[in-house]
Amino acid sequence: RKEVEQDPGPFNVPEGATVAFNCTYSNSASQSFFWYRQDCRKEPKLLMSVYSSGNEDGRFTAQLNRASQYISLLIRDSKLSDSATYLCVLYNAGNMLTFGGGTRLMVKP
Amino acid sequence: DVKVTQSSRYLVKRTGEKVFLECVQDMDHENMFWYRQDPGLGLRLIYFSYDVKMKEKGDIPEGYSVSREKKERFSLILESASTNQTSMYLCASSQSGRPYNEQFFGPGTRLTVL
Fold first, then answer.
1. Are residues B103 and A102, on separate chains, in Cβ contact within 8 Å?
2. Is B42 within 8 Å of A100 when comparing Cβ atoms?
3. What is the count of residue pairs from A and B with beta carbons less than 8 Å apart?
4. If 0-12 CB within 10 Å is exposed, 13-18 middle and 19+ buried, where does residue B111 land?
5. How would you write chain A as a 3-class SS string?
6. pLDDT digit string (tens) for B64-100?
């Protein structure tokens, strides 16, 4: 089983829609979680960290469910500029960052 | 503005050639990383470095080596390139203290080995 699993998509949604992706992880000792965003043919960039209590940054909400070992990203009021690949990233003590394969989002007019 | 640069955006090499990929960061970061990115597999860590002249193996170091002679520069070396090393190579850097500090990535080098 992969350490981090994501649905590769693509998720095709109209502008203004709400969309959510999940990411499951296998190592219950994972300590820290992040979402990175990667635009087409560009480098990944940190979107947001994921805190145990859940956190929000504008239209983006990240949640962590340790019991079920998944994190989620919710995007409200989707914009065309949200089209990208969203990478689930986690950190385990004594190890480096582990990246998921990414979920591709395409927002259509 | 944070900047990580890589020596080439595209590179085509032949099997058996020695290949050097260079990465330079201007943020005075202690940590530097080399990843490869393949469709469906995500980013996989090849090597990383916490300090000058220091290196640690990542998840897939076989067939690669690295060099860090100066703080701002981290080089990835393919001693004898093979077709299965055709990939996108991404360099990243981060501040010291915690390995999970935000990593800043370079634009990537797409390497094709024929």
1. no
2. yes
3. 41
4. buried
5. CCCEEECCCCEEEECCCCEEEEEEECCCCCCEEEEEEECCCCCEEEEEEECCCCEEECCEEEEEECCCCEEEEEECCCCHHHCEEEEEEEECCCCCEEECCCEEEEEEC
6. 999 999 999 999 999 999 999 999 999 999 887 765 6
b (16+ CB within 10 A) / e for A64-95: beeeeebbbbebeebeeebbbbbbbbbbbeeb
Contact A3, A91 (CB under 8 A): no
Beta carbons of B102 and A46 less than 8 Å apart: yes
| Token digits of residue B97 | 């203290």
* Contacts of B77-80 spanning 24+ positions with Cβ under 8 A: B77/B18, B77/B19, B77/B20, B77/B21, B78/B13, B78/B17, B78/B18, B78/B19, B78/B21, B79/B18, B80/B16, B80/B17, B80/B18
Distance from CA of B40 to the nearest CA of A (A): 5
Residue A50 CB coordination number (10 Å): 23
User: Which chain A residues touch B99 with a CB distance below 8 Å?
Assistant: 91, 96-97
Give A54-108 pLDDT, tens digit per residue: 899 999 999 999 999 999 999 999 999 999 999 999 987 655 788 999 999 999 9
pLDDT computed for residue B99 by the predictor? 56
